[in-house]
Write a structure and sequence with these properties.
This protein has 231 residues and is an alpha/beta fold. The protein contains 7 helices and 15 strands. The strands form 2 sheets. Strands 7, 8, 9, 10, 11, 12, 13 and 14 form an 8-stranded mixed sheet that branches. Strand 5, helix 5 and strand 6 form a beta-alpha-beta unit.
């Protein structure tokens, strides 16, 4: 029986857009036959977007970096899930794990150590269910790691997260069957821009257009609610 794995885009905004406009931060969820498997990033607005989509929280979330539009809801969600008897898996590079524990979870420090709030699964390469997650360092204003997802020895999916065009990261992403880049119309020192991404936009390559809400000709943009099937 054929199975289907797809990516559902939950949000494409930054932290300021959520605070001022209630637009969900950049995030997506991986679904296998419609069942939530992995969530990518947990910034402002993500849990509400999940519920609006009629989906439950999957067993684990990948956190790419500690900016609020990618990790802002982590403290609340971990505590709520823990209070309900469930430890959410947090998949992250060790550098990001350290920052989350030291800075993002400080509001719980007097009551709960980080190990009591989540199932921490960190390293350069980690396994979760049928997936092997390999982290790749990007170039951003804070430590940030994109990743590739591997299944049965095949590189199935890649995500750049918030990084400028960074050759080591992009070399790793190139091997994936499907890639999503997080980019801005006009790039800079810490974010990829559409012009710089142009050579990388081959088949099955897409962009979460940071803060955009309208299509742009010849740019493979993804918007909240869009679904992309893994080839």
């Amino acid at each position: 029986m054929e199975t289907e794995t797809e990516i559902l885009i939950l949000g494409a905004a930054g932290g300021a857009a959520y605070v001022y406009e209630r637009a969900c931060s950049s995030a997506f969820i991986i679904l296998h036959d419609g069942k939530p498997e992995l969530l990518c990033d947990l910034g402002y607005g993500v849990m509400f977007a999940l519920r609006e989509a009629g989906l439950s929280l999957p067993p684990a979330v990948i956190i790419t970096h500690n900016h609020s539009d990618h990790a802002g809801e982590v403290p609340v969600v971990l505590r709520v899930e823990q209070a309900q008897g469930r430890l959410l898996g947090v998949l992250a590079h060790p550098v990001i794990e350290e920052r989350l524990k030291k800075h993002r979870l400080v509001e719980h420090a007097a009551l709960f150590p980080p190990e009591a709030l989540a199932r921490w699964n960190t390293g350069d390469v980690v396994s979760e269910g049928r997936w092997q997650v390999q982290f790749h360092e990007g170039c951003h204003s804070t430590p940030c790691y994109g990743f590739t997802l591997h299944e049965g020895g095949r590189c199935r999916f890649g995500y750049s997260s918030d990084s400028t065009v960074h050759p080591p990261l992009y070399d790793a992403l190139r091997k994936a069957d499907l890639v999503i880049f997080n980019a801005r119309k006009k790039g800079g020192e810490f974010h990829a821009g559409f012009d710089a991404l142009a050579p990388h936009l081959t088949k099955n390559r897409y962009i979460i257009g940071h803060g955009l809400s309208e299509p742009i000709a010849d740019i493979p943009l993804l918007f909240p609610g869009d679904r992309v099937r893994l080839p």
